[in-house]
Design brief:
This protein is an alpha+beta fold. It is built from 4 helices and 8 strands. The chain binds nickel (II) ion.
């Protein structure tokens, strides 16, 4: 496996609409997925989309987790040509980050619950429901496939902040490595 270079904000690949994978069993797709998982793990991330590693195809890897503590033990899902639909349950705001926008966090409203449908690497249909952090990760990663980055989803840019300054927005005056539960997509 190979560690891949992560595209950063400003690279046009992050703004492009990615093309469908087509055949999820193709060896190059299997290798890309394995390399993306290794790259995500190495960067301390909890999700990664192929355009972030300069491959403009509709492939994401994501950890199906309810909180960050689970990220060490849970195996990532590989989603090929994924689709989402919001489910009843309304929206909630939480801080997100992105491996392509290192150091920054912002409050992003997302659907609390989503249904997802994709293919796995064997070409089987993979479908289910997600809520909370996992639903947020899926919405963030699928946005990458359409050239959408989390600041474009923010409704109040005053909450955009460097992670090291986040304590000021959280209002407790104490340094914290991350925001409260639900925070921090990708890292
Ligand atoms: Ni991202």
């Amino acid at each position: 496996m190979t560690l891949l270079k992560i595209a950063r904000l400003g690279h046009p690949v992050l703004l492009a609409r990615a093309r469908p994978v087509g055949d999820p069993t193709a060896p190059e797709i299997r290798k890309l997925a394995a390399d993306m998982i290794e790259t995500m793990r190495d960067a301390g991330g909890i999700g990664l989309a192929a355009p972030q590693v300069h491959e403009s195809v509709r492939l994401v890897v994501a950890l199906p987790i309810g909180n960050r503590e689970e990220s060490r033990t849970v195996e990532p899902l590989v989603l090929v040509d994924p689709e989402l639909e919001p489910l009843a349950g309304g929206t909630e705001e939480a801080f997100e980050g992105c491996l392509s926008i290192p150091g920054l966090r912002g409050l992003v409203p997302r659907a609390r619950r989503v249904g997802f449908r994709a293919l796995d690497l064997a070409g089987r249909i993979l479908e289910g429901e997600a809520e909370g952090l996992f639903a947020r990760i899926l919405q963030h990663e699928l946005d990458h496939l359409d050239g959408v980055l989390f600041p474009m989803r923010m409704t109040n840019l005053r909450s955009l902040a460097f992670e090291s300054e986040l304590r000021h927005l959280l209002g407790d005056g104490e340094a914290r490595p991350t925001a409260p539960s639900g925070a921090g997509v990708e890292r």
